[in-house]
Amino acid sequence: MLDPDGTARTTIFAEMSALAIATESINLGQGFPDYSGPAEVLEVAQREIAAGNNQYPPGRGLPVLRQGIADHQKRFYGLDVDPDREVLVTAGATEALAATILALVDEGDEVVTFEPFYDEYGACIAMARGIHKTVPLRRPDFQPDLDELRDTVTDRTRIILVNTPHNPTGAVFEPATLALIVELAERHDAIILTDEVYEHLLYDEVVHTPIATLPGARERTITVSSGGKTFNTTGWKIGWLTAPPELIDAIVAVKQFLTYVNGAPFQPAIAAGLALPDEFYASLARDLAAKRDVLVGGLREAGFTVSLPRAGYFVVADAAPLGYGDARQLCRDLPRLAGVVGIPISAFCFPETADQYASLVRFAFCKRLDVLEQASRQLADLRR
Ligand SMILES: Cc1ncc(COP(=O)(O)O)c(C=O)c1O
After folding, report:
1. 290-325: string of b/e by CB count within 10 Å (b at 16+)?
2. Is a pLDDT exceeding 70 seen at residue 1?
3. Residue 6: is its pLDDT beyond 90?
4. Residue 163 CA: which ligand 1 atom is closest?
5. Mean pLDDT computed over 373-384
6. pTM above threshold 0.85
7. How far is the CA of 223 from the centre of ligand 1 (A)?
8. Pair 236, 33: CB distance under 8 Å
């Protein structure tokens, strides 16, 4: 995207990552792990490359991965998914979301998301020339108000885009919210697009309920996920969506001109990951919960007010008690003050609504424990 003077617009994410490098700060801005995924998964990719699986795979994804995704949906959620007609492998969840929005949204169609929202949503809705409506998520628990949700979904709504577990707030939507989303989608004949990339990163006994499991939801729901967050392979960009066959066909029509196909040797590796035993999934969540606790402790110690995330990679911290009403400014100062980089929550909002979130910062805790401990020690300097 270009600014009015014709220069390319950079995001706050790019600005903050550049600042982290320039100041040699600990980068808790971007959500990628600084450790590798399970050895079993990495080894499959290496073997596949050595064995020559290096050319274009089928457009919908290699059968072994499509079957692995279908098996995963059955194993964890009891969903029956046809691997040939109801699964599409994509370049990360990012392409799944982009291809879906470009395929299904026509100029003037409304897309409802929750706000703050993952920045790709706004960009893709704009690319499709859709109209972006939002329902706010407010502190302390970042759950939507059901009346506001009811008022926002109308007959003009083409898609209700849900993200639970939610980035950046770490909220997991309550069952009543999910049920209302399905009810409203049925009433207004809207499609549900649900971004569930953090489906396995849940803490404190919280349970993830895919919307597609709710009565009446399946036939109008597109479920998106990704191997990146579950197997610490964000750089492989292997994601997928599951949906009824006619929706998949429409999305494939767009996807074939975006990336055509996706990383052949990584697909059997992600399939191997999806088949890992339950203990792998339990330890993934346990480890991240421990990391969350270290960073939350450090942020509280430093003087931030913190909403405890129940899922995902991120914690939202309020800088107001530190005298910073403007988190953008704090994020620009933080590398110098404490050698740590975060992202202001306003980056996930419309400019008009950003004020409501002005003092909030997002920090990622998908980092090694020693890195989080070091970040906590450095943040403690803020009190001084
Ligand atoms: C909510 C959400 N959706 C989608 C993505 C993108 O996933 P992928 O890396 O698989 O494209 C991310 C990555 O941070 C995310 O947080």
Report:
1. ebbebbbebbeebbbbbbebbbbbbbbbbbbebebe
2. no
3. no
4. 1
5. 89
6. yes
7. 13
8. no
